[in-house]
Amino acid sequence: MIAYFDCVAGISGDMTLGALIDLGLPKKVLTAELGRLGLGGYRLIARRTSRHGIGGTRLRVVVDDPGEHHRTLADIVGMIDASDLNDRVKETSRAVFTRLAKAEAKVHRRRVADVHFHEVGAVDSIVDIVGVAIGLDFLKIDGIFASRVPVGSGFVACRHGNLPVPAPATVELLRGIPVVGTGIGSELVTPTGAAILATLVEDFGEIPEMTIDRVGYGVGSRDLDEVPNVLRILLGRSEASFAGDTVDVIECEIDDMIPECYEPLMERLFDAGALDVTFTPVQMKKNRPGTRLQVLAREADRARLEEVVLRESSTIGLRYHTVRRTLLTRKTVVVETAFGPIGVKVARDRAGKIEKAAPEYDDCKRAADAAGVPVTKVREAALVSMAAGKGRERKTGRKVKR
Question: How far apart are CA 213 and CA 23, in angstroms?
Answer without folding.
Answer: 10
